[in-house]
Specification:
Elements (H helix, E strand, L loop, with lengths): L1 H8 L2 H18 L2 H12 L10 H16 L5 H19 L6 H21 L5 H19 L6 H20 L5 H23 L8 H20 L1
Helix pairs in contact: 2-3, 2-5, 4-5, 4-6, 4-7, 5-6, 6-7, 6-9, 7-8, 8-9, 9-10
Length: 227
């Protein structure tokens, strides 16, 4: 049995899945500080890619801790979601996926959506939610665009735009899901423009149209919700 288990764990994706499950189990069963330490050790096990996407790794723990502290979701669901998201993150970091860009941007979308939900639900401060958005955007821009030297500045701009919009929408006292959806759509349009600009394809693609469409849809939802 032990030999069979070793053979199975030689498969990279299964090995990453086992790591993700172990991290989620630690999040469920251990105090937060111990779970973070355990996850960090597992995350650094492969020296060649040890520091890649570390900001996203930190962001996930911030969001999961906020959801757990505020009882937004049962702990078992938080741990299950953690297993899935950490598996995606480890797969991207260790280049185990063929479509790394798609996998990471799905992870980014879920993390941004969760951080916004945490803010509008009162589980995260605006500063922490903005910090989460900054970290995941910085990782995306640094790893998947041809201008990594501009990633910190543009990630900070993205986080600032989201923070200002979130602050304004917060005082409209609309349902959480509407507030999150509105803010996420504006963020998606704005961030898509940034990526296409860095790739030099801003005016050779449908990025401006998609961005404007997302922003118009967001504000249409907002107007309907308010009135």
């Amino acid at each position: 049995m032990a030999e069979k288990l070793k053979s199975v764990l030689k498969t990279p994706k299964l090995r990453l899945g086992a790591k993700a499950f172990a991290i989620a189990l630690a999040l469920y069963a251990l105090p937060l500080w111990a779970a973070v330490l355990f996850a960090f050790v597992l995350y650094l096990r492969q020296p060649a890619f040890s520091m890649n996407f570390l900001g996203t790794f930190v962001s996930l723990f911030i969001v999961f801790n906020a959801f757990q502290s505020a009882n937004i979701l049962p702990l078992v669901l938080i741990s299950a979601l953690a297993a899935v998201l950490f598996y995606v993150l480890l797969g991207v970091k260790n280049m185990a996926f063929l479509h790394r860009l798609t996998a990471f941007f799905i992870l980014l979308a879920i993390t941004v959506f969760a951080s916004l939900w945490g803010f509008f639900a009162g589980a995260l401060s605006l500063l922490l939610a903005s910090f989460v958005i900054f970290l995941v955007c910085r990782d995306a821009l640094a790893s998947f665009t041809p201008a990594p030297n501009r990633s910190v500045f543009l990630a900070a701009v993205s986080a600032f735009v989201v923070a200002q919009l979130s602050w304004a929408i917060f005082y409209l006292n609309i349902p959480v899901w509407l507030a999150v959806t509105t803010t996420a759509l504006v963020f998606a349009g704005f961030f898509h423009l940034i990526i296409q600009h860095l790739r030099g394809a801003l005016f050779r693609s449908d990025a401006p149209f998609l961005a404007v469409a997302a922003i118009i849809t967001a504000f249409a939802i907002l107007i309907m919700a308010v009135f």
